[in-house]
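Bumping with the actual sequence this time:
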Amino acid sequence: VGEGAYYDLYISLFKIYKKKRERSLCTEFVASRPERPLVASLAPRPSAWPFCAPQMAETPSPAASTPEELAAAQAAKRAEIEAKLEALRLKRAKEEEQKTAYFGEHPGITCDGCGVAIVGYRYKCKDCPNHDVCETCYDSHQRGVVTNNLGKQVISSKPEDHRFVLYKDKSFQPLVKKAAGLTEAKSAKTKPNDPCPCGSGKKYKKCCNT
């Protein structure tokens, strides 16, 4: 057998001895620590020896709760979530109602992004002197893309240089009418063959309509 084989055997035996020694020292260290209650001893604790397995710090166990307390906590949490959802729904409904007042035709206004006449929502930049875009180009701006297909002015291609808001001027023509006003107008009109509103029992065309 050559000297290389003896050297490899020596290295293997040394590694085995080192592992057994580390385990022995770790066992002696744990055994020398003062005894603790069973619940506390089961909790993970850090080790001072580098070759021992790393442990997590001790964490106090949560206090026990009765079924009534747990049910009350769940009900309170559910009520809080429902209140937040209701507030969010009301906020969205208000925003949609406000946006309806800006939906219509904008005569003479062309989108700087796509070069098409704006019909629907008109967004005006607060940081530019005369920069208007349609809803489609506004959505592109929200995704980080700024276009200038109209090419009538120099516009920054950086999205952070623009702040758009809904806008309308005096020439604005709304496309959405209030349904309530139409209903009232229709209900106020009395047909000739309808009973007369005065209560005479006659038809409207033979009573107050004559």
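The tokens above came from a reply further down the thread. The longest strand covers residues 104-110.
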